[in-house]
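re: that chain from earlier
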Amino acid sequence: MNDNRILQYIESVYRFCLKRLSSHADAEDLAQDILLCVLQGLRRSDVTNLDGYVWRIAHNRYARLISERKHDVVVLCGGEMLDAIPVETTEPLNEAQQVVFQALHSLRAMYRDIMVAYYVHKLDIRTIATRYELSPEVVKWRLHVGRERIRERMSVMEKNYEKIKMHVMCNGAFNPNKYLDTQLYKAIAKACYDTPLTIEQISLTTGMPTLYLEEALEYMVYGDAIEQIKGKYVTNFIITTAAQRQVAMQGLSDDVINEATDALLNYINDTEVQLRQIGFYGNDFPMSHLLHILIPKLIYSASDIGNDIESIKYEEKFMRKDGGWGVFIVNEGIECIDSSFAGQNEYLYNNECGESGKIHYYWSGDAFNDRLNQYLRNPKFCLDALNADNTLLFGNDSDVADAIENGMCEERGGRIVPSIPIFSCEQYNKFGDWSQGCKVLDVIWNKWVSMLREVYEADTPRRLRNQIDSNVLSTAHNFGIYILQALRKRGLADESKVDEVFTKGILCVRE
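^ sequence. v structure.
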């Protein structure tokens, strides 16, 4: 039989592989494996149904590849100079061996395992072929490819491992930290940010073995932190650099901050009577306390922020595979938020009667308290059940102690009362009308937001342009912290204390 007959199957076999593997490199390797097996079979016996034979081999080889991937073996040593590394040695690898070791582990398992079997464990070609259910020709080919790729990579594997600093938040409702909570995840995100990369290219860039990258990439794709496109991986969120933050801050001079502070303070003073007459619990709190919810509320109500950012429909535009919605807000170069960051967390709760409510936590980086943040997810007291004297309903003494410890309640005149403002829905709507009535920031705010958008548009990859507004919105809200800092300097707003939980930026809405 003329072996050239298999040429007609080259393209269709490749398409078969690409459809199932979604990687050009993997598809090429598998297609070559299939065609080599077909060729070997044709030389051994007379095949009457070539079409059926080819596709039976194709399905079998694909099934075996998937089985191999599910049973990858962790390789602990290697080299190419591989034969220069004793299998049983406990001595540390020298510098040259370490470079080879890293290059070896940048290979996919289909090459890596065969290289280790041949060079480290000294197995012959036929034994390796039997172990991995491959033909000797395929084993030889993979050894050849593996050697070539190691040679290519040895010159670029001198990787300096430095800790990657990233602070992770979100603009929406999901848990972004679990997809970027390790150095491995952060290294992958940074490597794939500018250009889509294959898993082997990621390995070369990060110095991480492909063995460890495979599962990490699968998890990050599920979390929408990484997107897989035609066998390559690319970061699916904007990374704001220290340089971008520095440029952005140029739009907030002391003069701009003082002008905005004066304008907002005048509005609050002019409308203070109207505000307190809304009648919410806490309307009689000192203004030094209330400013910590009034300033953020006014900032968040500044709806005319360039191109109507507030009108973004996050639920429609950024639905996530894990069930949440929104986008990552990631800042590179820092590990924790400082006094230049501000934000708002919202928590839904239900009381014992089945009624619901919402807690708003306006925070600034220097006063943010993670213990309080965790407590607010499940507060152990009932804000809906205010008694006639404004005392609260508790389940037990332990709940009282927790509430006091977290700054949500205080003992006053022998009674346990809330230490935060509490609104009914009707009162909160009036509060919203009050904040919407403030127009004194329009010019300053629009300039600030326009400048932020220019910063992001200058450096954001084109594929992430639809996330610019979310990042601009999140960054723009930091404006409020500078207003509060100016008010503190003037002695008008309460200071947070290092040894105390600061809850003066919290309010509750009873629904």
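Residues 243-510 form one domain.
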